Fold this protein.
Amino acid sequence: MQRALTVLAVACLLAGTAVSKRPKWHQLEGYTFERYVADFGRQYSSTEEYLQRQTIFYTKLKSMQAHNADGTKTWKRGVNMFTDMTPEEWKAYNKAYKSPNRAPPSSVHVAADQANGVPFPLEVDYRTWTSPRVLTDVKHQGSCGSCWAHSATESFESYYALSTGMLPVLSVQQLTSCTPYGTAGCDGGDAVLAFMYINSTFYGQTEEWAYPYSDFFYPERNPNATTSVCKNVTDLFPNKTPYNWFADLNRIGCNGYGAVTPNSATSTKSALATIGPLSISVAAGNWQDYESGVLQNTAANGQTNEWSIDHDVQMVGYGHDAVLGLDYWIVRNSWSTLWGEQGFIRLDRPAVEPCSPDGTTCGTSGCLNGPHYPFVKENPPQPF
Ligand SMILES: *[C@@H]1O[C@H](CO)[C@@H](O)[C@H](O)[C@H]1NC(C)=O
Ligand SMILES: *[C@@H]1O[C@H](CO)[C@@H](O)[C@H](O)[C@H]1NC(C)=O
Ligand SMILES: *[C@@H]1O[C@H](CO)[C@@H](O)[C@H](O)[C@H]1NC(C)=O
């Protein structure tokens, strides 16, 4: 997501206390651009750019501090690796769209208020699952618009874990580089097209270690291509007898996909409670400096809201915040653990879900507009 990123040393552990140099929302009093540049390892091409970034930074900082001081706000905004970007620059990296090339789903999940009279659990949180674990660690897509490939990969991982108890880390790069049907790699795509791609192959999705993520610095790496060339994994290991080690790889296949009734909080809640985590599309235009709390649609306060769907993520549960007195959806993002609540965001889940003026997109950030999930199957080991 960011332009010139320098990886900094991780905070050191001293006597069991983790100390991060990066300030939280309540530590922004007196925070300066000079410190931001150091804390976030920023590098600019010229003095002119430095001054432009400085202006952006202080404008944002002021608006964040005003937001955080407003007791009616239910979430906090903070500085992060996106703080020196213009909204336009940042939005250019949110690249999900709903493709007209989608095959129809194999099934559509509909739910009554309660399943056969049994109420849904009050809370579902796949982050807490341990046997089996169903979520891999939060990833970082970098400056590549591969959110859709991350979302699809997270779904394949979760459903494979739910059906086999094993949680391999799967290759996001394979989906980013190899999905056809008009996807454009780092220039955007649709998680459903990635389901269709895996569905169409005999080899399935391979693991991250065999086909690692390499598009982090797109587009700096190759301004002429939307993603790196789709690789035959066999070719990455020349002069090796494929079956000797391919037998050790998990191969995750797909046999159709399921959809959840769009814009239905009840169906989404019951799908989370009875099926599993969901790949969802959202309008993430106001997520840039989310740090913690329950994000509310500004439309609920009578202001203009952001309804244009531009990002794919994974919904991993729902719950209730007793302090704020708000129900929420739990959503996993692919902007690293530096962003939000360890890489996650909670979205307001009011009794009556907000909808766009044309009624096509509902839920905070439009999160209910189209949840879906793959039907995974285990493929036999074979070369790819
Ligand atoms: C990108 O395209 C331009 C114009 O066609 C060309 O000059 C340049 O060498 C290309 N760069 C790469 C990395 O392929
Ligand atoms: C998935 O593959 C099966 C078996 O080849 C096929 O019948 C089905 O239409 C495919 N579904 C999608 C969504 O591509
Ligand atoms: C990759 O290469 C191997 C060995 O040459 C071949 O058997 C396999 O079909 C290739 N995979 C694809 C997807 O083309």
The helical segments are 33-39, 47-69, 87-91, 147-164, 172-178, 191-200, 242-246, 265-274.
